[in-house]
Amino acid sequence: MISDPSGLQALIDRLAPLPQIAVDTEADSLHSYFEKLCLIQISADNEDFLVDPLAGFSLQPLYDALAPKRLIFHGADYDMRLLHRYGQFGATDIFDTMIASRLCGYRELGLAALVAKHFDVKLSKASQKANWAIRPLSKQMLEYAVNDTKYLLTLAQILEAELHRLERWDWFVESRDRMMASAREPRERDENSAWRISGSATLSPQAQSVLRVLWYWRDGEAKSWDRPPFHVMSNDDLVRIAEKAVIGEPFSTPRMSSRRRKSFEVVLALALHIPENEWPVPPKTRRRRPTREQTERFESLRRTRDKVAAEIGLDPSIVAPRGALEAASLDLNTHVLMNWQRRLLGLEPHQPAANA
């Protein structure tokens, strides 16, 4: 485990001549409110390394060393978002084995399934939900972490050859570039609508008002405790309690400390007395009913997509998700579809923007 600047520099020196490096990360999102980058796994030239971001040194020298390399990830979107929070992660040449396997027509996209298929190795999932913020890491967790990158370099070679054989390399590049652009975009929670969780739309207006108050109470409790909100109360419990409380039916609650229970009871009592003019208003939707021409265009695109997907052995949602087809039926010039998808659907590809 690399846990000091001198060890990091030794790793950087070791990686300097290598063109390709496999990378993965582990976080503690299942165990804390404030998600932390807990581990960076690296494999290169038949060696495996673990870097400890919790040791308190800057990761920027490592990021700078990785920037000119080809980096192999499996499901890079999440890893890139996590790495971006801790410095300027400027890598541009990324091979994502999940995107590649999807475009090759694989039905099982998990790393364990791919390793089993190509290496006849069964990876343990025992540490999948482990708390990666604990120190020291157990032997089982260390083995799990190393296996996340150990096979990626060879797997990337296999999948890249398959993409070229299938003449889908340009599909991969465009899909990869879109993923990278998305990963660089910050995701901010909409504080005004975050409480609208699954099941909230079917509640009465008053129950939605109660749910909103309980959701913010739970968020505050989770934040002060530094635990994920579901450790305080599940979404299902929030919806159920809000629904029953407004009609006076009895309800059960999860186990809580006496302090938290008193806080919950006070907040619930206040929520039940919120006046009607302060209840949530359903969000306005501006969705227009499609015209007959647009409906016919959607059905034509859907038939084309399904036919093409069957011919090339891909899931139809990969060729074009339903939402993308709906957008294209309203506007054939939409950028929701990538150029390789447009070509498969018989649409003209977008022209690259001219340099100013």
Features:
3 domains; 356 residues; DNA polymerase, domain 1; Nucleotidyltransferase, domain 5
Structure description:
- The protein has helices at residues 5-15, 60-66, 76-84, 97-103, 111-119, 139-150, 152-165, 169-184, 205-225, 229-232, 235-246, 258-271, 292-312, 316-319, 322-330, 339-344, and strands at residues 20-27, 37-44, 47-51, 70-73, 93-96.
- It has three domains: 5-184, Ribonuclease H-like superfamily/Ribonuclease H (Nucleotidyltransferase, domain 5), CATH 3.30.420.10; 200-278, HRDC domain (DNA polymerase, domain 1, Orthogonal Bundle), CATH 1.10.150; 292-344.
- A hairpin with a 2-residue loop joins strand 2 (37-44) and strand 3 (47-51).
- It has a five-stranded mixed β-sheet, with helices on both faces.
- By secondary structure, the chain is of the alpha/beta class.
- The model has no long low-confidence stretch (mean pLDDT 95).
- It has 16 helices and five strands.
